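Example record

Each entry pairs one chain with its bound ligand, zinc ion.
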Amino acid sequence: MSTAGKVIKCKAAVLWETHKPFSIEDIEVAPPKAHEVRIKMVATGVCRSDDHVVSGSMVSPFPVVVGHEGAGIVESVGEGVTSVKPGDKVIPLFSPQCGKCRVCKHPENNLCIKNDLIKPRGTLLDGTCRFTCRGKPIHNFLGTSTFSQYTVVDEIAVAKIDGASPLEKVCLIGCGFTTGYGSAVKVAKVTPGSSCAVFGLGGVGLSVVIGCKTAGASRIIAVDINKDKFAKAKELGATECINPLDYNKPIEEVLQEMTDGGVDFSFEVIGRLDTMNSALVSCHAACGVSVIVGVPPNAKNLSVNPMLLLLGRTWKGAIFGGYKSKDEVPRLVTDFMAEKFPLEPLITHVLPFEEINEGFDLLRTGKSIRTVLTF
Ligand code: PAD
Ligand code: ZN
Ligand code: ZN
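Structure tokens for the complex follow.
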């Protein structure tokens, strides 16, 4: 029996407040309104950005259904939807692409003004949510909310992908992989023969490593305080792995000494102010480029000596690897299917959705790279 046009009762992981576990609840998911799409989720990755909401370092209205690295199948569409239809395999886009705003029209940039990242409303574009639980409206997260058996997204925040793609793998293209890979190949524009330093070897940092290798970097120095991450980093292309805890001087000095004054490209993929500074200083003073990928703690400032930039360094950052999501996500899925890059090494754990709290424990204790939750 078709569920189109009806309220769907299903399970979702609701976060009622910060610093609390996810609570698997029975929720109602309203049908999609005009220009919206309701998706049956099949798989979703656990990303540190979701945990930033739990810890309060990323601001979101509560209660909320988080999750933003998912893949699923369209269940029904609202009026006026033309780019996807029921039965299509899709990836929700936490960084949407309206195609009409100043940024969407800019050839190089990607943070569409319709995003819900900068001043989070916790709603869809029309200012309301489609989730209710125990009679209360539940907020959206980044317009995606993938920690639910069903979710509703705006049409500008969903990409149709290859019907043959394995959703329990390509869900990583919804955030971690694309963010890291694009930060190397598209944002930094890593060049053949160059030297790179990657700070933080989680799912996103290791995807930066894959991007640096694809771009032909000759030295990829992986930096992490958890040495258990080094084997995977080497497998994916790191040429050296260093642990800041093994040195009695700042890691930026170690990197400068290792690379004749500093690397060509450095990446901060942790989300800490001190490592953002270290990554900046570890790239070459005159010709280095440093990219911020990690999400910094809310409302915290970094004090930087302008001399660090005056000498010629470039300091930049990007959301979602600089990719225009609706255009590029289907292409990245096609590239994965053509074996242009791997996703499997990033997936260390697969758990049933109901074990979401175990998935977050694995992330917090540094035991996982990516945990994929399946519905
Ligand atoms: P993760 O927690 O899996 O990986 C972080 C890694 O950093 C771990 O291996 C840690 O051991 C390591 N680490 C922690 N502290 C230090 C330190 N002081 N020095 C060196 N290494 C350290 O996270 P992730 O890979 O899922 O995400 C990484 C960051 O990227 C995080 O801040 C997340 O919010 C951000 C992110 N940004 C975007 C974007 O669009 N810019 C998208 C997705 C994630
Ligand atoms: Zn736009
Ligand atoms: Zn993410």
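The mean pLDDT is 97.
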